[in-house]
């Protein structure tokens, strides 16, 4: 476990926690923050127009580092923007109200940023947990932790999820823009036109329009909660939002990103097909996988294993009996988890192999 000197010379980290409808999870989330080995942080809880007991639960925590800021409901991007405007830290971290951090997460990110002054966005791997907080044995491991080019950021969400990143304040100041969406000119960092996929747009904008590097720590320091429920309609809406993000990014930098528009769409169509498989929606899974291949067949060349596995999952879901499919799925998940744990144990060597494998993906 990394220990960091937290005297007055330590950098302040502002942890922004958007809260809306999170009464079931927020206490555990705050406990995971207060258990950090790095102690020099402020916690900005953004009450995004809560209608449940979430804020009442937050008020039970009396730690002096916690501040609660109230606003009308503006969505995740709006809550993060509000938090950044109030933040006093040198580093900004985002913690979604249903996710958890391991105790040395902040310590490792501060150390990473201090040792690599060219890195503006530091992220970690994540472990998936269920609604009860139990690990399911599967990890979110981005294909790269270095060499995050603008095209790669567009095609493959480089950070993974909203609770994985710690960012220099200087980076956010560089991408700041003014918006009057709510009737008053305000400094914004995330684009509130996107109620979904707003983080993808932000990471791509940083990679495209600044010289800061995005880089990762090859350890699972974030516990990312996944719902056992879910609707296919939500998966389709998420893809539609991503497509709008891709269009915005490509239009803002056509010479840099324009050639990757269809490739990015194909990758996220494949991602949506995988989500549809987990939701047992064979029709949506088949539709999105076929569209992905028609949109840009290069996903077969760049990532043959993942693409072929997705195709196999889609057709198995559509063609074999549900009971047999469930058995095959459990076997595949166990094999995936074992492989991922091996990568994590091997640390840097595994990451180097991953990067070599993916080096042909996107320059």
Model description:
With 363 residues, the chain is α/β, with parallel strands linked by helices. It has two domains: 13-225, Spore Coat Polysaccharide Biosynthesis Protein SpsA, Chain A (Alpha-Beta Complex); 232-319, no CATH class. The protein is 48% helix and 18% strand. The chain contains 15 helices and eleven strands. The protein has helices at residues 26-34, 54-58, 75-86, 105-115, 150-155, 169-174, 198-209, 232-252, 254-257, 261-278, 282-295, 299-302, 304-319, 322-346, 348-358, and strands spanning 13-19, 41-48, 66-71, 91-94, 100-101, 119-129, 135-140, 165-168, 177-179, 186-188, 213-225. Strands 1, 2, 3, 4, 5, 6, 7, 8 and 11 form a nine-stranded mixed β-sheet that branches. Strands 9-10 form a two-stranded antiparallel ribbon. A hairpin with a 5-residue loop joins strand 6 (119-129) and strand 7 (135-140). The longest helix has 25 residues, at 322-346. It is globular and about 55 Å long. The model is unreliable at 1-8 and 348-363 (pLDDT under 50).
